[in-house]
Specification:
The structure is a single chain. The protein is an all-alpha fold. It has 11 helices and 2 strands, in the order H-H-H-H-H-E-H-H-H-H-E-H-H. Helix 2 runs parallel beside helix 5, helix 9 packs antiparallel against helix 10 and helix 10 crosses helix 11. The radius of gyration is 22 Å and the shape is globular.
């Protein structure tokens, strides 16, 4: 018996079944309400730790002139062991975070008993758990790959703070409640039918297709001192962000159709992209009106 079925049995049936939107046994309904509330407490807890994780640590032996400073500090463990573990942790977050958004994976999981109204919360919980594992098990190093000149470091820190503001603003534009699962869960709590999520071109979305990913990319890169472990994080999460952006475009083409294809033809995924799936995508003759 799987973990899902064990939880389902404790709640008197399937895990928050779809029929629960209109009628749930009292115990099952309280399980659903508690699950949603716990999800968002976990989300707040995870974001707090993510802020300090991305802020990074500052080795004391850093060249004030910046540039490549070479080896400084020491490792408590063999180099390959610590860097290999950090690379694995970075991948552990990136892979499920993208896989769970694939339509085929979502269909399979909802077929296993996770209701659509709860899928956003389920996705948020999985993301938070793997992210906390990454943060809490991360192995920082004092091997410096790059250090910004000391005069520029306050500006790098200020840009890091501003990137959090841009991230929150972008999430607000696209619907933060959908990102965490709050919106569909709250409609379920009030016994309201689900609504179709609308696509609107406003704010930063008028200039690039992926402002959320762009803001997160800035948070990963903007650190005054790039240690070796941070360089590993930058490489893996940068690849994840660009791959995730392309996958998101494909999902939105499937969900929205012609409207999103026309949007892709006008607005690049990221500024300055000369070609490829994250540049402006010309309309094919058979898809243009």
């Amino acid at each position: 018996m799987t973990f899902v079925h064990l939880v389902a049995a404790s709640c008197g049936g399937r895990l928050f079944p779809q029929s629960a939107i209109t009628a749930l046994p009292s115990l099952g309904r309280w399980c659903g309400i508690g699950f949603g509330l716990a999800t968002h407490l976990l989300f707040a807890f995870t974001v707090w730790h993510l802020i300090w994780f991305l802020a990074g640590h500052a080795p004391t032996d850093v060249s004030p002139e910046g540039g490549i400073a070479g080896v400084s500090g020491s490792f408590g463990k063999p180099l390959l062991q610590t860097i290999g573990l950090d690379a694995l942790l970075a991948i552990i977050f990136a892979v499920p975070h993208s896989l769970l958004l694939l339509p085929s994976v979502r269909r399979w999981l909802t077929g296993c008993g996770i209701a659509s109204a709860m899928y956003g919360c389920f996705y948020c919980v999985v993301t938070c758990i793997v992210l906390l594992i990454t943060i809490l098990c991360w192995q920082p190093s004092d091997l410096i790959v790059w250090g910004w000149p000391r005069a520029l470091r306050p500006w790098i820190t200020a840009a890091f703070v501003c990137s959090w503001g841009l991230l929150l603003s972008s999430l607000h534009l696209t619907g933060l409640g959908y990102q965490t699962g709050w919106t569909p869960w709250w409609r379920w709590v009030r016994e309201l039918p689900p609504v179709r999520r609308e696509f609107t071109q406003r704010g930063a979305y008028r200039f690039l297709r992926h402002p959320v990913y762009m803001s997160f990319l800035a948070l990963v890169w903007l650190t005054p001192v790039v240690t070796l472990d941070r360089a590993v994080l930058i490489v893996i999460w940068t690849a994840y962000i660009f791959i995730g952006s392309a996958l998101k475009d494909r999902r939105l083409v499937l969900l929205i159709g012609q409207q999103y294809r026309e949007y892709q033809s006008r607005v690049p995924g990221y500024p300055g992209m000369p070609a490829g799936p994250l540049a402006r995508v010309p309309l094919m003759p058979h898809t243009s009106r």
